[in-house]
Amino acid sequence: MAGRILLTGGAGYIGSHTYVELKSAGHDVVILDNFSNARHDVIDRLEVITDGPVTLHEGDVLDKAFLASVFAAHQFDAVIHFAAKKAVGESVEKPLDYFETNCTGFSNLLMAMRDGGVFRVVFSSTATVYGEPETLPFTEDHRLAPLSPYAQSKVVCETLLAQCKTADDRWAYGILRYFNPAGAHDSALIGEDPNDIPNNLMPYIAKVATGELPTLNVFGDDYDTPDGTGVRDYIHVVDLARGHVQSVAKLIGGNETHTLNLGTGIGYSVFDMLHAYERACGKKLPYRIAPRRAGDIDCFYADPTLANDWLGFEARRDLDDMCRTSWNWVSRRKNT
Ligand SMILES: NC(=O)c1ccc[n+]([C@@H]2O[C@H](COP(=O)([O-])OP(=O)(O)OC[C@H]3O[C@@H](n4cnc5c(N)ncnc54)[C@H](O)[C@@H]3O)[C@@H](O)[C@H]2O)c1
Ligand SMILES: O=c1ccn([C@@H]2O[C@H](COP(=O)(O)OP(=O)(O)O[C@H]3O[C@H](CO)[C@@H](O)[C@H](O)[C@H]3O)[C@@H](O)[C@H]2O)c(=O)[nH]1
């Protein structure tokens, strides 16, 4: 069932891909973003991909009057909330900033939703809420043990949603715990676009492939994994975006609350990713073994069964698709 949907953080990496998938599913979509981690030309690119104008409200989720004006301007059926700070390491340095944007920003949004009579929300959570694995693959009932202020901020938001639901049964929410998003849109017009030196593996490798960075630092080759490097569950950003379309459709159609992993169920090592990227860009990429990164876990991946049962969600794209679309995006961006 199509609806009118507010996308907070809709100019960002996952939000922009979700915008495209929502539009192609027939939804009416409004973007709210403060462009603290996005470029304005993303909006032009979205207009090219979807062949139509983007409705945008530029502002901050910390600004309550702004939020009220957005809800006064539209009658939304649901909200998908991406707007947040997301760098695990930075959150250790700046816990107050992370609490403010991620937790206060979200409670402001929920208040504006309640005041506007909107009670359906999809929330961007993360696999890092599970912390050190007690069992693998991670199932949704694995205990939560966040290891960083960033992960803690997501647990606070998840808890707040459950408390809202207990207080008022009109709330219906989808909590989506993403594993590691990677790749870019097939059009090569949108993708991950970090301004600084990337923290995450794929955007870092991409900058080595374009020659913007000299060498990949492989953070440890002595983990208890098949090749000694860290293992993660990388999921194509377009698959992730489709998961949001399915989640919000479930909320609009039936009011059913759900908490789900979005991953593929397959773990790949740093070397698996490096070699897949070499295949995509057609050249050898330099790397060196560096010390372990503080706080890293050796291996984790999702049990995707519940998302399949609830939403019919299934990741369709593999690691080679992620690397190919990333390479197309970064090589095109470098030349424009
Ligand atoms: N990318 C990942 O690895 C990953 C993994 C798990 C969960 N998540 C979560 O998914 C969501 C989206 O992540 P992303 O990778 O697209 O990040 P992103 O930084 O590309 O997108 C976030 C968007 O929100 C906007 N924003 C930030 N603070 C804002 C504020 N105060 N008011 C209004 N807009 C604001 C930014 O400008 C940006 O466009 C985040 O909530 C993140 O925590 C991301
Ligand atoms: O330059 C690099 C960057 C990363 N890695 C390794 O690559 C793997 C993946 O690292 P990264 O891409 O930084 O992802 P994670 O540390 O797993 O965290 C990401 O994925 C989580 C979801 O699983 C999100 O919640 C986090 O926000 C996001 O940063 C790890 O083994 C790292 O040690 C390197 O070897 N070199």
From TrEMBL:
Set out the biological process GO terms recorded for this chain's protein: galactose metabolic process
GO MF, one term, reads: UDP-glucose 4-epimerase activity
Domain of life, per lineage: Bacteria
**Record InterPro entries:** NAD(P)-bd_dom, NAD(P)-bd_dom_sf, UDP_G4E
Which Pfam families does this one have?
GDP_Man_Dehyd
- The answer on whether this UniProt entry bears the keyword Isomerase reads yes
Q: What is its EC number?
A: 5.1.3.2
The NAD(P)-binding domain extends over 6-324
| Cofactor(s) needed by this chain | NAD(+)
Q: Report the pathway entry.
A: Carbohydrate metabolism; galactose metabolism
- What keywords tag this UniProt record? Carbohydrate metabolism, Isomerase, NAD
Q: How does it assemble?
A: Homodimer.
Entry similarity comment: Belongs to the NAD(P)-dependent epimerase/dehydratase family.
What this protein is called in its record is UDP-glucose 4-epimerase
